[in-house]
Write a structure and sequence with these properties.
Immunoglobulin-like; alpha+beta; 3 helices; rod-shaped; eight-stranded antiparallel β-sheet
């Protein structure tokens, strides 16, 4: 009778065979492993979130807005064509008021080098060859082949005004820029 009144001896498993251990320690262990992996991915492919000269760029915003307004006031329109046969870029500019003798054309595009993508900016000075007509050298602009750049962000600017836009496939068709509204 004594044996029936006594509770049976419980069989204890070793600590690592206990099912509750997986639930209690498994969650935090998984989180630690996931955070280490996330840190590795972030360090390996880290992008620059903020430009190095972000403060300077922020100060320039008001100047850019004023230059866009000046281009609207002058009712500026530009027609740009790339002549790869002569390695020239040709610009037709029209608007109210006098036009400058020299203008700078900036061509920006994304370029892939190895594992990174960077922005390449080419600045081409344009000289006036006739009233409203400008011309510049295309030595730095890539052309031809399958790897040819198909999209440029362009800025036509002086110290007083600027015109901006996108130029799709410069080897095939010209682009027209109008003052931002």
């Amino acid at each position: 009778m004594e044996a029936s009144l006594m509770p049976p001896k419980s069989r204890r498993d070793t600590w690592y065979k206990e099912p509750w251990l997986l639930l209690v320690a498994g969650g935090p262990a998984f989180v630690v492993c996931a955070s280490i992996y996330t840190g590795y991915v972030a360090m390996r492919g880290a992008d620059k979130v903020v430009a190095e000269d972000y403060y300077k760029q922020g100060l320039m915003i008001n100047k850019d807005i004023q230059r866009d307004a000046k281009a609207r006031e002058l009712q500026l329109n530009a027609y740009i064509n790339a002549d790869f046969a002569r390695s020239k870029i040709i610009l037709q500019l029209s608007g109210k008021g006098s036009l400058p003798d020299n203008i700078q054309l900036s061509l920006a595009n994304a370029a892939k080098g190895g594992n990174s993508v960077s922005e390449v900016i080419r600045r081409l000075p344009l000289k006036q060859i006739a009233p409203g007509q400008y011309e510049g050298e295309l030595k730095l602009m890539p052309h031809g082949g399958e790897d040819a750049v198909r999209l440029f962000h362009i800025k036509l600017e002086t110290t007083d005004w600027r015109l901006t836009g996108d130029w799709f496939d410069p080897g095939q068709k010209p682009v027209q820029l109008n003052a931002a509204k």
